[in-house]
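Reference record:
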Amino acid sequence: MEIINSIESFRLARRKIHLDQSLGFVPTMGYLHEGHLSLINQASQENDKVVVSIFVNPTQFGEGEDFGEYPRDFNKDHELLQHTGCDIVFYPPTKEIYPPSDNIDTFVVPQKRATMLEGKIRPDHFKGVTTVVTKLLNIVLPTTTYLGQKDGQQVAIIKKMVRDLNFMTKIVVVPTKRDHDGLALSSRNTYLNSSNRQKAPIIYKALKSADHLYQIGETNSDILKNTIRSMLTELDIEYVSVADSDTLEELTHAKPGAMISVAVRLGNTRLIDNIILGQGS
C-alpha cells in the first residue's frame, strides 16, 4: 500500500494503472471506522485497484463548526487500511488541495438539492463538499466512486453533480453500517459522553418505527414524521423529513424508495441518520 501526499505524485502513480484496469475510489475525512471499511471492501471486490483519500476538508465546515476538533488519527487509519484491499492512500495536506498562494474564487455550487435539510442549517456546507469532491475526482479519475447512504443528502447531491458535469465515474451507494444497537457509525460518535451514547440508539428505533408503519400501509408523511418526533422527545430535533431520495423534495405521501431522515443534537453533538422506506436500512 502506497501513501501519497501530493497531486503531482498521485498523477504519476495514476498513470501506472493500466487503462483496462478498473479503479475504485473511497473519499473519506479519515478517523476510519467499520462504515468506511465496508465501502473499501466493496470497492476492493469490484475493482482491480482501490484508492482511499483522507482529507478533512475545511471548506465544508461553517463558522463555529468543529473543523479544528474533528477527530484525526492517521496512524490508526493507516493500520486499518493495511488490512483492506486499499492500494493507494491519497493523504494530502490542506495546502496541497487549497494552495495558500492561490486566491481561489472558483467553486462548484450545487443548487436546489443543497438548499434543503442540511442546507437550511449549514448554508455553505455542500458548496464545500461538491468543490472538494470535484477536485478529488479530477485528481483520482476513478472508474467507480463509493459513497455511504449514511449521508443521504450528500449522496443525492454528488450523484446529480456527476450527471450534470459529465464525470466519467459511476457512483455506488453502500448501505449504512451500524453499531450493534443500531446507531449509525460516524466519526462524530466519539463526541458522545456515556449518557448520550446510551440515548443515541433511539434515533434508529424511531426511523424503524416509521418504516414499519409504512410497510403496513401508512403513507401519510405527517403521521410518519410525528411518530419519529414522539420517540425523540429527549433529543433536540432539528428536522424530520420524508423526501424523494433523488430530488430531496418533501413528500405529502411516502412512496417506495423515499428517504426518511433526521438531524438531532445530543448535548453538543449533532447526529444525522436516514433510512430508505421499504428497505429498512
Remarks:
- The beta strands are 2-4, 23-28, 49-54, 88-90, 144-148, 170-174, 236-243, 259-266, 269-276.
- The CA atoms of residues 211 and 217 lie 10 Å apart.
- The longest helix spans residues 125-140.
- Residues 187-273 form a domain with the Pantoate--beta-alanine Ligase; Chain: A,domain 2 fold (CATH 3.30.1300.10).
